[in-house]
Specification:
CATH class: Alpha Beta
Helix content: 40-55%
CATH topology: Rossmann fold
CATH superfamily: P-loop containing nucleotide triphosphate hydrolases
Strand content: 5-15%
Number of domains: 1
Number of helices: 10
Distance between the termini: 23 Å
Strand order of the largest sheet: 2-3-1-4-5
Order of helices and strands: HEHEHHEHHEHHHEH
Shape: globular
Largest sheet: 5 strands, parallel
Number of strands: 5
Radius of gyration: 18 Å
CATH architecture: 3-Layer(aba) Sandwich
Length: about 240
């Protein structure tokens, strides 16, 4: 697993090539999803990444090629009090897909070793043991015939700043821009360290991390869709 600093974020895709590939992939995805449904094989997809890295846009292009009845997007925010009263993984087990369906987690259980670690919401002994707990959980999914694929979308600081400024100026995007985004940006080195350790300690054959160079949104979206299609076809 490479370090985030090793990624070539300059990769891009021309608009015409993007449109062509997007159309082709969105045409192929429904057939692959139907084959999974007929075989009663479920898939778990996890999306994590830098703030403003384009997770939502990638997920929308993915679901734009899927039959609505065969997938569900699960947005993950801070846990509710009733969830905090239980083990931190409990709420994710409640969201696992039915046989033949696809579960798409927009953020996930990795919050324990990212935001909870950096912001101090979890004690060191709690987030330190979470790597093993998460690996065991994902391994249990795979043993049950439910493949797992995890995506980390990476952008650099200058591109993040540009997207934040765009959000702040757009009436349709201002709701996405929060004080938390600014606070997280100030802790960029701490988050980089946490992400690199997460990738190193939770990347394994049956539930791999896929690093997505996301400075160019078109390149990132196509790479995500290609990877998901390959996963579905193998499953």
């Amino acid at each position: 697993m490479p370090m985030l600093s090793d990624l070539n974020l300059a990769q891009s895709l021309p608009e015409d090539e993007y449109r062509k590939e997007l159309k082709s992939l969105q045409k192929a995805l429904p057939a692959a999803a139907v084959r999974l449904y007929k075989q009663k094989r479920s898939v778990v997809l996890v999306f994590e990444g830098k703030d403003a890295a384009g997770k939502g846009g990638a997920i929308r292009r993915l679901t734009g090629g899927l039959i609505p009845e065969l997938y569900r997007v699960i947005p993950i925010a801070a846990p509710e009090p009733s969830e905090n009263a239980r083990h931190y993984l409990w709420r994710f087990y409640q969201q696992l897909p039915a046989p033949g369906r696809v579960a798409i987690f927009d953020r996930s259980w990795y919050g324990r070793v990212l935001v909870e670690r950096v912001e101090g919401f979890a004690k060191a002994e709690e987030w330190s043991r979470a790597y093993h707990e998460i690996n065991e959980m994902e391994a249990s999914f795979v043993r049950a015939g439910m493949p797992v694929a995890k995506f980390w979308l990476q952008i650099d600081q200058s591109e993040q700043e540009r997207r934040f400024e765009e959000r702040a100026k757009s009436p349709l995007k201002q709701w996405k821009f929060t004080d938390e985004d600014v606070r997280n940006r100030a802790k960029w080195p701490q988050y980089e360290e946490a992400v690199n350790e997460m990738l190193m300690r939770t990347h394994h054959k049956n539930a791999p991390w896929h690093l997505i160079e996301a400075n160019d949104k078109r390149f990132a979206r196509i790479k995500v869709l290609r990877t998901v299609l390959e996963l579905m076809e193998r499953a």
